[in-house]
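During the reporting period, we have paired protein sequences with backbone structure tokens. One record among many follows, to show the layout:
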Amino acid sequence: MEKVLFGKLSNGKEVNSYVIKSGNTEVTLLDYGATVQSLKYKGVDVVLGYDNIEQYEKGKDCFGGVVGRVANRIKGGKFTLGDKTYNLTKNDGGNTLHGGTFGFHTQIWGVEEHTESSITFKRLSPHNEEGFPGNLMVGVKYYICGEGLGIEYTAVSDRDTVVSLSNHTYFNLLGDETALNTFLSIDADAYTPIDKNFIPTGEIKPVKGTPMDFKWAKFVGRDIEEEDEQLALAGGYDHNFVLNGEGFRQFAVLSCARRNILVRCFTDQSGVQLYSGNFLRGELGKGGVAYEKGFGVCLETQSFPNAVNEEKFPTPILKKDEVYKSVTEYRFEDFMAK
């Protein structure tokens, strides 16, 4: 497996890149944020990112990084566990987003093991990091799964805590135009509406008859300009979808006929955040390409946002000494069989 110096952070720490590959799939990963820097299928890079570490350190969009301890938002930056209330770092107005100011996507991870087709990153998140309880040992294994990328998350804590890990990769199968012109289907009959602060209201509403309905494949941007309160609040899609079924199953398909690429998405999680790149503002990414609004689409598997404060949502609580484990895979194939 190839290991190359990618650059140095402002504090002088080195960041390395690693390449794993098999068949038609090649992935470049960074130990900064356990980040997916590049994901190529048949030589076509289908994810957004940067060419240098300076941009990753300064960037606000979490390109390809592992987000945690808790992905997405926690209302008010606090939660109660047992008889104690924990106050977290607030980095999204009055809320906590993606683990706080120095979430997992901003940390240097160690490499525990690696082969030509897999690599495992690990780090210890200390007790009270960003306000979260417990010393949490976290592992993220990236592996080639047939033609595609698999991600296995594990974690264990020495006291009760909350965990919901995800990856913040932005997909763009088209390469040179908006990702809103990508076909997407999501196997979800319901979603969780948000308020003006992007926090779920606690409701679970059906997608049928709304722009949130991706049961049948459609362009991501087909309905994005519809007069809809939820789209107006988020400036597009930035919503959690309640996935149908249980266990490890296919939850979405992302595809592009022009590039002849289709991605089948699998997870064991209960939800996925569809984010249509609403806050991208033209920053230059890999190859000097300007990442305008809608240039990338995220499918972040997760527990529901703010689940720790909503009794009706699946719980993200991890008990002391129990093992958290979750798997997500993005499997590639040709859009049109030869």
The radius of gyration is 19 Å. The domain at 2-333 is CATH 2.70.98.10 (Beta-galactosidase; Chain A, domain 5).
